[in-house]
Amino acid sequence: MLVSTNVSYNIFAKYIEQEDIFNDKKTLSSSFIPQKISHRDAELNQMGSILAPALKGYHPNNIFVYGTCGTGKTICTKFIISHLQEIIKQSGKSLRSVYINCKMKKVADTEYRLFAQLLKEMGECVPDTGLPTDVLYRRFFERVDSKPSTLIIILDEIDALVKKVGDDFLYNLTRINQELKRSHITIIGITNDLSFRDNLDLRVKSSLSEEEILFKPYNAVQLRDILMERADGGFRPGVVSDTVLGKCAALAAQEHGDARRALDLLRVAGELAERAGEPSIAENHIDMAQQKLDMDRVTETVRGQPSQSQAVLYSIIKCQEKADNQKAWTDKRLLTGDVFDNYLAVCKAGGMKPLTQRRISDLIGELDMLGIITAKVISKGRYGRTRDISLAVKEEPLAKIKTLLQERFG
DNA sequence: AGTCCACAGGAAGGGCAGGCGA
DNA sequence: TCGCCTGCCCTTCCTGTGGACT
Asked: In whole angstroms, what separates CA A24 from the centre of its chain?
């Protein structure tokens, strides 16, 4: 007992004595909403002007917000809604808002779950399955119309939901709006897909009557400004140098001006510096943070996959190794057939019941969507049409994934 | 120009688990 | 308890595809 106390003391002693380099860590989180949002004045003004009719109790138009990852779409939307709510509250009127991330599995990836989630966010108790969808529609309608107000529904990653369940729910939401007597609904759809609107049904497009706002990627200078503001609140003075901020900004600017990535880099670099007992962040901490972020993203994604997907990925890794080692293998391309044959062997060795080739084809597509592999449809002439498959992860995360999968199937 | 291959990918439906209401 | 509803994962069946080969 005494020994264990001594060990605990030895382990944690240096951390107790060590000076904290963070001031307020949540400031460095990408979900933190700051008092001021830099380099997005035009977009905020545009959004504000579209939503302004809500101040007088009128129905604002629906909005579609476009832009690549980390361009500030979500944060600006939340920022403007919270300000609008504050002003409306002062005037004694009511404005409700619901934020839903449609990409979250088991949250809003089906029409049923979307309406269940909307009702839950509005304080209703709804089971995860079991009720007919039209019952949910009716409950939602009654809830919205229970008191005179404006309801703003923010659907983040709306393209993911439309891709999965179609655009009927958008049409239904606009139809509900026409039947409401005391309230109205405004939809704000946020998407990375610039061609999202083009793929909507004509009937949906005309019923939406929406306005569009485009968020352009940040450049390195703008990212540096954003990081500087966040670092001011997030770290103690003297912890972050201009060089470090510049490097973070430059790396994130290479990744399509992704502010989320820039913040993650800075935060993780801070954590690594703190763990190493350093009083400030050095450039090598940024490099290490970049590696760690890549590694964590990939391994966590793989870990979260169902076992059949993992088996397919393991088969791809094995096939790739075989292709790399065999000199006689002149065409080093991995095809769906090769992967499926290897997958059958993996299943046999692991005592798993194999799925059909049709299903494996879908799983390969899903792994491609996750960015773990790339699978391009090619035609080999009279030798058929197939997919050219290759691994899309770097060496270090790949080694970690391989170890992980070997423990499971090896 | 027609044939052929090895799939891709859409559609339909089966089986299962789970919730609700009578 | 039972019937009805849902989502999810999967199979089966089918048509379509694009470029090498004949």
From this structure: 24
